[in-house]
Structure to design on (243 residues):
């Protein structure tokens, strides 16, 4: 039950405090992003400071991880224990760090692809699907899937249909593996490979991954910026088993 001495806000008033419309506030309440508001005698919603704190926390969190993940996480932060909430926030930092490592590894993979594409390639350097899979630390099934998607083009022996990977196919496989490690889907990788085949090499792919690194840095800084609002949200929550 609300404290009668605590300041209360109408839907419009609390929305204006954080830059949301009245409909956005109602939608966020319906989704559990903020606690349910009490109703006055006239039936109108009455919001308190805790609702304002939750809205500010959501806005800061959405800037760091995106609106949809923030909407999914906020009910946990509101309803669960501080221990569980702190664990979920730690997971966010770890996820950003992990993605940053994958993107950096992808950039290193592209550098290798660029270097090796300029080397003289002899018949003795042709690789089997198993050798390529081992070299790139991927499954042979992944290479077959990439081939079905038209991303890589190994040669086929006419008599047995056995795959063999020459210079072009190995370079393609390296680029695909690097971009997949960086979190990219099949369609953007296909576009990048088209440019690769047009002698643009991996410059565009490297730019995309560099942009992703910059975005990860922005998100990390935004998550740090959200720390104050998240602290306010969790400050009065129970630390133990009760929500």
């Amino acid at each position: 039950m609300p404290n009668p001495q605590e300041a209360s806000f109408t839907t419009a008033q609390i929305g204006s405090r954080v830059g949301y419309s009245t409909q956005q506030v109602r939608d966020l309440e319906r989704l559990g992003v903020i606690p349910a508001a009490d109703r006055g005698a006239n039936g109108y919603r009455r919001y308190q400071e805790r609702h304002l704190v939750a809205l500010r926390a959501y806005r800061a969190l959405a800037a760091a991880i995106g609106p949809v993940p923030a909407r999914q996480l906020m009910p946990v932060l509101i309803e669960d224990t501080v221990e569980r909430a702190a664990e979920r926030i730690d997971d966010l930092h770890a996820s950003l760090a992990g993605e940053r490592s994958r993107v950096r590894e992808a950039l290193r993979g592209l550098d290798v692809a660029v270097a090796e594409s300029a080397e003289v390639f002899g018949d003795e350097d042709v690789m089997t699907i198993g050798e390529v899979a081992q070299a790139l630390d991927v499954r042979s099934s992944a290479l077959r899937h990439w081939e079905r998607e038209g991303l890589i083009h190994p040669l086929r022996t006419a008599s047995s249909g056995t795959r063999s990977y020459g210079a072009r196919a190995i370079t393609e496989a390296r680029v695909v593996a690097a971009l997949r490690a960086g979190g990219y889907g099949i369609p953007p990788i296909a576009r990048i490979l088209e440019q690769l085949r047009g002698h643009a090499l991996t410059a565009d792919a490297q730019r995309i991954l560099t942009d992703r690194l910059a975005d990860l840095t922005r998100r990390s800084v935004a998550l740090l910026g959200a720390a104050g609002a998240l602290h306010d949200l969790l400050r009065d929550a129970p630390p133990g088993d009760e929500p």
